[in-house]
Amino acid sequence: MQNHHLKEHLYKILVIGDLGVGKTSIIKRYVHQNFSPNYRATIGVDFALKVLNLDQETVRLQLWDIAGQERFGNMTRVYYREAMGAFIVFDVTRPSTFEAVTKWKEDLDAKLSLSNGKHVAAVLLANKCDQGRDVLTNNGIKMEQFCQENGFVGWFETSAKENINIDEAAHCLVKHIIANENDLLQSEVADTISPQQESSRGGTCSACFRS
């Protein structure tokens, strides 16, 4: 008997946030299991591939590094196109990078949505937690509230250097992406089999509206 439920998924995931918050380090840690304190700023778009095996399904994550384009303030739509999820990263030692989080989230939501109109799943990463905790992340309740108000599915204190919570954060994001994908598939199926849809469309030919 064929193992028919061995499905493959490829998800494009964006890693966005201000310059120097550790986006490249997070990707390198997650994909290559290493850390170097001196990555030079990446120029152009860089992406890395991580392959996961979840419940008999192969999930390929294509992690896109925003790569030095932060200074242009506005990411192009091309970069966002077809992404299914995002990490928005800030540096716990630099409050201004947290203030920028809402700007990144608004930019993401303005340029990208799922085919059903919903926002893509986004997880907030409070990075460099090995270098000290900031006032905000010390107050988990405040962070939860911030996530709810700004439409994040969750948040994690991470350290690419010490390998803290990177896998957990990715797992959380993938779980939400799969749930979103299942919702999309179900609504597509509903569209094709629901006879009600047909009658409510009225079946009027657009040619009938010629004045």
TrEMBL record:
Biased composition (Polar residues): 193-203
Recorded GO CC terms: late endosome; lysosome; membrane; phagocytic vesicle; trans-Golgi network
GO biological process assignments: endosome to lysosome transport; phagosome-lysosome fusion
Coiled coil spans: none
Region (Disordered): 192-211
UniProt keyword Cytoplasm present: no
Gene3D superfamilies, A to Z: P-loop containing nucleotide triphosphate hydrolases (3.40.50.300)
SUPFAM superfamilies attached to this UniProt entry: P-loop containing nucleoside triphosphate hydrolases
Pfam families xref list: Ras (PF00071)
GO molecular function: GTP binding; GTPase activity
NCBIfam families per record: small_GTP
Record's protein name: Ras-related protein Rab
Organism phylogeny: Eukaryota, Metazoa, Chordata, Craniata, Vertebrata
